[in-house]
Design a protein that fits this description.
3 domains; alpha/beta; about 500 residues; globular; Nucleotidyltransferase, domain 5; single chain; 5-stranded mixed sheet; Hypothetical protein af1432; 6-stranded mixed sheet; 14 strands
C-alpha cells in the first residue's frame, strides 16, 4: 500500500490516546493503536497534567509506528471539554517541547460534529438506516449527545448534561449512602431528560436508535471488522436482565473491563432504556465508528477523495435554528445571498478564506434570532442565544465570531469600548470587524424587509467600492440605511462603499 495515501489520526480524550493509520482513498483502517487508560481523578480537569508521562510515552510510540509505516502526514487532536484556554496552551507547549507534535483542541460542538459525520460518511448501511427517523446516542466525558437524522440528513443535536464524569461522581457518592442505587440513578437520568422528553415523545413515529461506541456491548455483539450492526430488542433486554442489578465484580469479569468502565454499565443501560422510550425506537444498532473515523473522513474530503461537503450539516443546523426561532425566511435568504456575493467580490480587500466565508453565512442566518424574544435590541438577544447554544461543528472561537456578527449586524458596531469586542483576541477582533462590515451592507440592502433588491454588481477600485443594485423599486429606505451602516466598512477597509441603483432587473 502506497505510503503517500496513508494518513495518521491521533486523538486524545480524557480516557486515553488513540491512533488510526488510514488509507484515505479507500478509507481503509490499516492500524489502530491505543494507550493505556488514564487514571481517572476526582478533579477531572487535571487528568492531562497528571498523565503527562503516559501521554509523552504513547505519542513517541505512535510516532515510531508512523515512521515504520512510512507515514509522512499525520495530525494530533485532543478534547478540550474539561480544560480552559490557558491550561490548553500550557499543555500544548509541554507536549510540543517533548514530542514535536502540535495539538489541535476540539470543543464539545466539534466533537459532536465528528461523531455524527463518522456515521454519515463511514458506512453505506447508515444511509439505508437513516431513510427513516434515526437517532444517534453518544455518551462522552462531559455530556451525552442525541443527534437526529431524517431521510439521511442531519437535523439537530441535543447536549444532555449526563456525561460519564458526572455519572461516575454520582455513582461513587451513592455507593455507600443508598440501597437503591439504580433507582436513584434512573430518577436522576429522567430529570436530565425531562426537557427533551416532551419534544421527542410528541413526534410519535417509530424511529431507529444507534448506540455509538458503547465498548462493552460492541465487544459482545459486533464481529471483528464490523462497524455497525443491528441489535435486537431481545438482545438488549437480555443484557438488561443479566446486568442491571449485577455487582461491579460480576460486570468486570463478564465484560472483561476495568473498574471504571464497569461502574458505567448500569447507568448506560438505564439511559438507553429511557432514550428508547422517548424516541419510540423500534430498531437498535451498535456502531464502533467514532471521533477518529470522523477525523479521517474530514481529511479524506479535504484531500479530494470524498465529494461530501460536511459543512452542509452546519448550514442545516443554522437554518433549522433560524426557523425554530421564527426568523424571517425571505429576509434571511436575500441577506445571505447578498453577503456571500459581496464576500466573493471583495476577496482582495478582506483576504479571508473559505472557513471565514462559512462563518459569515452562518452569522447571517442566525443574526435575527433575537426577534423571537424582543425586537428592541434583538441583536443582543441573538448573540446571547448563539453563545448559550453553540453551533455544532464550530470551534469555540468560531462560535464567538458568529455571535459577534449577530451582535453587531444592526445598530451597534464593534468598538474598543464594547466589552464583547474588546475582550477578543486581536486576530478574532479583525476577523469580526471585516465580516461585520460586509454583513451590515447586505442587511441594509433589505432594510424594508421587502426584497426590493434581487441582485447586485460590485466594482472594486482603489478609491471606492461601488455596489449597483438592480431594482425597479423605490430604494430610499435602503439607501438611507446603507449610508448609515457603511461607516464601519470605511473604517475597516479604508475606502467608502457606495450604493447606486440601476432600474433594470438582473438575475
Amino acid at each position: 500500500m502506497a505510503a503517500k495515501n496513508l494518513f495518521g489520526v491521533i486523538y486524545m480524550s480524557t480516557a486515553k490516546l488513540e491512533m488510526l493509520i488510514v488509507s484515505l482513498k479507500p478509507l481503509h483502517v490499516v492500524e489502530h493503536m491505543a494507550s493505556a487508560k488514564f487514571v481517572q481523578r476526582m478533579d477531572k480537569s487535571k487528568i492531562y497534567q497528571s498523565e503527562m508521562g503516559k501521554i509523552v510515552f504513547s505519542l513517541q510510540g505512535f510516532q515510531q509506528v508512523l515512521k515504520d509505516y512510512g507515514v509522512k502526514r499525520y495530525h494530533f487532536w485532543a478534547s478540550q471539554q474539561l480544560i480552559d484556554d490557558v491550561t490548553a496552551r500550557y499543555l500544548a507547549e509541554q507536549i510540543e517541547v517533548r514530542t514535536g507534535l502540535e495539538v489541535t483542541w476540539l470543543s464539545t460542538s466539534q466533537i459532536n460534529f465528528l461523531r455524527a459525520t463518522a456515521l454519515m460518511g463511514g458506512t453505506k448501511l447508515f444511509h439505508k438506516i437513516a431513510e427513516r427517523s434515526t437517532y444517534l446516542l453518544s455518551i462522552g466525558s462531559v455530556a451525552a449527545t442525541l443527534s437526529h437524522f431524517d431521510h439521511g440528513h442531519f437535523v439537530h443535536a441535543w447536549n444532555i448534561g449526563l456525561g460519564y464524569l458526572e455519572i461516575d461522581q454520582l455513582t461513587n457518592d451513592l455507593r455507600h449512602a443508598a440501597t437503591d442505587v439504580s433507582g436513584i440513578i434512573s430518577d436522576y437520568i429522567g430529570s436530565k431528560l425531562q426537557a427533551l422528553r416532551h419534544r421527542l415523545e410528541a413526534e410519535g413515529q417509530e424511529a431507529n436508535l444507534i448506540l455509538q461506541d458503547f465498548s462493552p456491548f460492541n465487544d459482545m455483539l459486533l464481529q471483528p471488522g464490523e462497524d455497525i450492526a443491528p441489535m435486537t430488542q431481545q438482545q438488549f433486554q437480555a443484557i438488561e436482565q443479566d446486568n442491571l442489578h449485577a455487582s461491579q465484580e460480576y460486570l468486570r469479569h463478564h465484560f472483561k473491563i476495568d473498574e471504571t468502565a464497569a461502574a458505567r454499565v448500569i447507568p448506560s443501560l438505564l439511559m438507553i432504556r429511557q432514550i428508547i422510550s422517548m424516541t419510540h425506537a423500534g430498531h437498535l444498532y451498535l456502531t464502533r465508528l467514532n471521533i477518529l473515523n470522523g477525523l479521517a473522513l474530514h481529511q479524506a474530503a479535504k484531500d479530494g477523495y470524498l465529494k461530501t461537503d460536511f459543512d452542509d450539516i452546519i448550514r442545516t443546523v443554522a437554518e433549522n435554528r433560524a426557523r425554530r426561532y421564527q426568523s424571517d425566511d425571505a429576509h434571511r435568504a436575500i441577506t445571505v445571498k447578498l453577503a456571500l456575493h459581496l464576500y466573493d467580490q471583495l476577496r482582495k480587500l478582506h483576504r479571508l478564506g473559505q472557513r471565514e466565508r462559512l462563518l459569515l453565512e452562518i452569522g447571517v442566518r442566525l443574526e435575527d434570532l433575537g426577534n423571537f424574544i424582543q425586537a428592541h435590541g434583538h441583536y443582543r438577544h441573538s448573540a446571547y442565544i448563539i453563545e448559550a447554544n453553540p453551533v455544532i461543528g464550530l470551534s469555540d472561537d468560531e462560535n464567538e465570531i458568529i455571535a459577534e456578527i449577530a451582535r453587531y449586524h444592526s445598530a451597534e458596531a464593534p468598538e474598543v469600548r464594547q466589552h464583547h469586542y474588546s475582550h477578543l483576541g486581536a486576530d478574532i477582533q479583525m476577523t469580526v470587524a471585516k465580516l461585520v462590515a460586509i454583513v451590515r451592507l447586505a442587511d441594509a440592502m433589505d432594510d424594508s424587509r421587502q426584497q426590493k433588491i434581487k441582485s447586485i454588481s460590485v466594482s472594486v477600485r482603489e478609491d471606492a467600492v461601488t455596489i449597483t443594485a438592480h431594482s425597479m423599486e423605490n430604494l430610499a429606505l435602503e439607501e438611507w440605511a446603507f449610508q448609515r451602516k457603511a461607516k464601519l466598512f470605511r473604517e475597516v477597509y479604508g475606502i467608502p462603499a457606495v450604493l447606486k441603483q440601476r432600474r433594470s432587473l438582473k438575475k
